[in-house]
Amino acid sequence: MRILLIASAFNSLTQRVRAELGDDGHSMAVVLAADDASVRTAVQRHAPQLIIAPMLRTALPEDIWSQHVCLIVHPGPPGDRGPSSLDRAVQDGESRWGVTVLQADAEMDAGDIWAWEPCALPPVAKSDLYRGEVADAALTAVRVAVERYASGTYLPMSQRGMTARSRPFLRQPERRIDWTSWPTESVLRSLRAADSQPGVLDELLGVECFLHGGHPEDRLRGEPGSILATRDEAICRATVDGAVWIPQARLRRTPGGPPTIKLPAGSALGDRLTGVPEMPAPLELPKSRRTWRDIRYHERSDVGFLRFSFPGGAMSTSQCRRLLAAFRFACTRPTRVVVLGGERDFFSNGIHLNVIEAAADPAAESWANIQAMDDLVEAVLTTTDRLVVAALAGNAAAGGAMLALAADEVWCRAGTVLNPHYRLMGLFGSEFWTYTLPRRVGAEVAAALQRDAAPMSASAAQDLGLADRVMAGSPREFTDEVARLATGLAGTSATDRRITDKKAARERDEAVRPLSVYRDEELARMRRTFFSPDEPYHALRAAFVHKQPAPMRSAEPGDA
After folding, report:
1. Of 311, 94, 210, 198, whose CA–CA distance to 86 is shortest?
2. Which of 245, 507, 530, 551 has the largest CB neighbor count within 10 A?
């Protein structure tokens, strides 16, 4: 069918719906719902047989939903209504939830139900759930709804007579944390319900700011509300019965002042943290510890697991350098396989655009960040004494996708979306993509991927040769399966031969064209972009960071 996606943003769920329905053979187009006029123009242009709204903050025009079947993806079970359904579910501590696909109608979320799918809500951040269990349920429900609509015989279920539960917009007064009385679990629920957006408004060290993300701490204690320590730019804040780690913060914008952006908490608070002790933690932590560490290492048999999880998948200069140091440590261990990747959510999205935008010299910080990414990727590419597996529990894009491709094998969870390109940010790209991408798919396909700049499902990536394994299941099931397969890979006699062949292949490639040549050529292009103020990258970066429409760029493939 011809399907038009209408969305408020080309976010992870919209990309996944576009990619996976496209894999199913449907003709897909996307329009961003900037205003009613743009929606009407897109509908007239594409003449869709079906309209789907994976993520919509505003109502569709009545003349659209009254003349076309428009399916709304609502992140809540049947009868649940309101714009803050998932936020409230996380804040209320719900353990079971669901996603409903319903028909647009005059009353928001009250239309006939075409499909719904239940899902678990483990105690993690809202955005992590949205890209994980909730997205899995959404794709299942969307596919069922599309099949039912295509049959021409299915009658959707009316919500008349169904008990409705309204969940109105969750405002800051309801999110506000009372540090003098709330236990740790209540604090965590509030932080997790607002982790990506909008954050929890609070006062900290004499300044109002929004707090983003929360993780428990099992040992540090202090006066409730006080900052006890920092670790790798996160802050640890005391509760009445423990403490929590908060990785990110955003200063509240002052009236008439410049816009503020979300940053690592240490960067956002800056000199206000003077005197707060840095509390390092070892890479290898016992499983019993409840504390925050964005990079961890553990071993199982002959496998080393280097786990990393950076908010939003962005990797700043310092994060890249710390991950490189951890990888080098992993390569000193007596293992035969190293697995790279977090247990949930993003693998990596490459350089940290927010940190770059906030830097005193964004061009210089861009340059430092891309070189740190290159150092990390080069270390993976030149590891020839063991196999390296990139395990993508979640999405990867730009330099993060190229980090994965530097590994010997790429294993993806089935719900992963890959964006192996740079063009939409006005960049040529680095991270040795001119070596690793053609090595995987050939020069012609590599050029097409960069030119088309389209999101790709894990299944499509496997078909092209960008992924070696795709595994169905929840994030937890993916983690368990990766551990099982990696242990099996390390235990087979064929691995010794693969390591030997890998070393010989790297030496042959180096003799033909050294990695330093690829790096120098890529970085020459990037340097010109970073240090030329008229390059589109700077305006595109600012628009992305401040969540504004992208200025004067080519449309997404399929955009109206």
Report:
1. 94
2. 245
Q: Calculate the CA 46 to chain-centre distance.
A: 30
Q: Which residues pair with 308 in a beta bridge?
A: 295
pLDDT in tens, 159-187: 988 888 888 999 999 999 999 999 999 99
Assessment of whether the complete model's pTM goes beyond 0.85: yes
* The pair of three-digit structure tokens given for residue 296, joined into one six-digit string: 């961890």
Helix (H, G, I), strand (E, B) or coil at 91: helix
What ranges in 418-535 are assigned the alpha helix state H?
433-441, 443-452, 458-464, 475-490, 494-512, 515-530
The sign of the CA dihedral 72, 75, 78, 81 is negative
- Cα(51)–Cα(4) distance, rounded to whole angstroms? 5
Range list for CATH 3.90.226.10 in the chain: 295-474+493-545
For residues 539-557, one letter each, b for 16 or more C-beta atoms within 10 angstroms of the residue's C-beta and e for the rest, the string is: bbbbeebeeeebeeeeebe
Asked whether the beta carbons of 78 and 117 are under 8 A apart, the reply is no
Q: Quote the tokens at residue 396.
A: 């990867």
Q: Name the CA radius of gyration of the chain, rounded.
A: 24
What residues contact 37, with CB distance under 8 A and at least 6 apart? none
Residues facing residue 469 across a β-bridge? 411
In the chain, ranges of CATH 3.40.50.170 domains: 2-166
Question: How many C-beta atoms lie closer than 10 Å to residue 27's C-beta?
Answer: 14
pLDDT-derived band of residue 556, with 50, 70 and 90 as boundaries?
very low
CATH class of segment(s) 2-166: alpha beta
206: burial class by Cβ within 10 Å (0-12, 13-18, 19+)? exposed
pLDDT of 554: 38
> Tokens 């008349």 appear where?
160
Burial (0-12, 13-18, 19+ Cβ within 10 Å), 181: exposed
* Peptide bond just before 198 cis, omega within 30 deg: yes
Contacts (Cβ under 8 Å, ≥6 apart) of 206: 272
State residue 303 phi and psi, 5-degree precision.
-120, 130
Q: How many helices (H) and strands (E) does the chain have?
A: 20, 27
Residues 6+ apart with CB under 8 A from 425: 353, 398, 537, 540, 541, 544
Please enumerate in sequence order all residues whose Cβ is within 8 A of that of 387, keeping only pairs 6 or more positions apart, or say none: 336, 337, 338, 408, 409, 489, 490, 495, 498, 499, 502
Considering the segment(s) 295-474+493-545 as one domain, its CATH architecture is Alpha-Beta Complex (3.90)
| Length, in residues, of the chain | 560
- Rounded to 5°, angle at Cα 312 from 366 and 342: 110
Q: How far apart are the first and last CA of the chain?
A: 17
Helix (H, G, I), strand (E, B) or coil at 144: helix
Query: H-type helices in 315-466, by residue range?
Result: 317-330, 353-358, 362-381, 398-405, 433-441, 443-452, 458-464
**Range(s) of the chain covered by CATH 3.10.25.10:** 172-273
Domain 172-273 belongs to what architecture?
Roll (3.10)
